[in-house]
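As noted in the main text, all predictions were made from sequence alone. Below is one such record, for Multidrug export protein MepA.
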Amino acid sequence: MTGQEEVQYKKMTETPIPRLITTMAVPTIISMLVTSVYNMADTFFVSKLGTSATGAVGIVYSLMAIIQAVGFMIGMGSGSQLSRLLGQKNQKEASEIGATGFYISIAFGLLLTVFGLIFIDPLMRILGATPTILPYARDYARYILLGASIMCASFVLNNLLRGEGKATLAMVGIATGGVLNIFLDPLFIFVFNLGIAGAAIATVLSQCISFIILLSFFLRGKSLISLNIRNVSRQAKVYISILKTGLPSLCRQGLASISTVALNLNAAVYGDAAVAAMSVVSRIFMLMISVLIGFGQGFQPVAGYNYGARKFDRVRQAVKFSLVWGTIVVVVLGIIGFVFAPQLMAIFRKDDAEVIAIGSLACRCQSLALMLAPTGTICNMLFQCTGKAALATLVASCRQGICFLPLVVILPQICGLLGVQLAQPLADVITLVICIPLLRNFFVQLKKEEARKTA
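Prediction:
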């Protein structure tokens, strides 16, 4: 083990848990916040083009969620294994996992580009575009699809850096592109007069900058692993293990996309104002939930490293610390969202009273349910980073799949638009009920493993 590897190993397995998770979580929270802010910037600037254009952002967000799903599946699949392998001091296999994940992400991204551009109009309709929203959605989606491979690869590089405990480097790459996007949006939309296509071009250019920065860390030896193409595995089991470990992320992100489609389709029954309102609410809560996800992503490599090193007491401490502080953070955010819901909606469509009214109620309902989210998020990430892929997939599928999809279809039949607004909050409640016994059982199993280790 080299000096750099030894220092990193000691940091991840000996630093007090509260300080370690905090130092890991702060950069990832900043990364998630910047990403959410630039997504909201897209919505804000595009909203100046009209209600239909605002709705188009929500439609294409489903497509971006698909791209993210692929990127996160491969990134989390390789990053989670990377943490455990480095915890076991297995440097060679860690580089093999990292390089394999990086190159297959580029291949998957290119496939998304080709098929997405060929079937762009049918795809936009499937995602919920109305006839008035379709032209805007098509213009926005075309450029997003062209950047699919860069986006996928960036997610993988980000997760590999976090997996080895280099959260600050991951933050620099992601945050730089996000900040740049905020400045490029008005330039391309209004100064260059490119309209909604300008927002998409700004997003893709920003993602390219993030990719270059992230890749440079690996090329300059800042990472513990090598992405040399010679490290790409020729064994099918390596690819299967990456996809299997990353399946929970695919389910989480993929179901987020499907749930957004279902939300758009059910909201479209009530007009463009309903689609725009729910699109804005989704962006607001993406910002809030990103804080929790960022916290969880700071927790994940800590848990994975120490689980691989068989330091089970530190894994237990990490879970408890993350649950307590994650809950405190989202309670504060939930109160803000509940109290200032109309003002938050007005930021985007202050001249459309219907959008504000529909969005405010949905925002308040989701603010109350947000306080239940930490258990599901930490539970999902814990199972994933400790190699319990089946349980992680189940938990990842709950919030926006198993629980949400039936509700968003059934509730509007019973109580109309209110059903669309209540579907996600009720899904959060059910998800919490499912996660509690699973988490309790994990602690029981952890004690058994600890006893075997002692024996």
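The chain has 18 helices and no strands. The chain has a mean pLDDT of 87. These features were considered when defining construct boundaries for the mutagenesis experiments described in Section 2.9.
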